[in-house]
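Deliverable D5.2: sample structural annotation.
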Amino acid sequence: MSTDINKEDTQTQGGQPSGDQQESIRQVVEAMGVGPADYPGPADASDPQLFCEARPKVEKPFRGVFEKFLNWARANSLWVLGFGTGCGAIELRPLMTSRFDASRFGVAGRATPRQSSVFIIGGYASVKTLKRIVRSYEQMQNPKFVIALGSCTINGGMYWDSYNTINRIDQYIPVDVYITGCMPRPEAILAGFVKLQELIKSGRGEKANEYSEHFDWYKANQKKVIKDWDMPDYNW
């Protein structure tokens, strides 16, 4: 038994949706109550304003007791992004075991940036990895916090003059807590979490807003080492 398939309906042409895809989009748009004339159509993947140039907004904190309560809750629910950026990731595994039991500090792992509030940059960071780091960081919702783990992350370490690694992660994204060593033991990482909790509870965990305020400076540094930045490379 054979079935005839219209290739024009199953393949994209020039990056545009196929016939079947357009029909599906039309049905979704109508279900949302949007008139066909008001639907702008698919976004242009080559428009950098939608991706790497989109400016983050400064999230102003609340005042008084309400903000203190929120900071207390944030400090005791540190959800770490499960992204091992380098060799330092090997030290994160023992944290969740019974010996170190990071859960008693409110630390838990999460699978996606949109669920996470803490990003640990562990070990060396190559230029190729930096693109993923920046993208993951920008996908995280505010407030968000960064821990620089290991000498290579902080000052380049043994790779300080490498052609393919970066020296200081805080030139590309803001860092809240630095944990030195090669590699720091789990006890040192727990001490870093305690320091981060102190910063958050005191209202000083505002590095995400610093990224928004100095967005041009951070983006200029990123583009010095990331040459193929714009779409479609940025959205692989």
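Annotation notes: The chain is about 35% helix and 10% strand. The domain at 62-225 is CATH 3.40.50.12280 (Rossmann fold).
The annotation will be released with the project's public dataset once the embargo ends.
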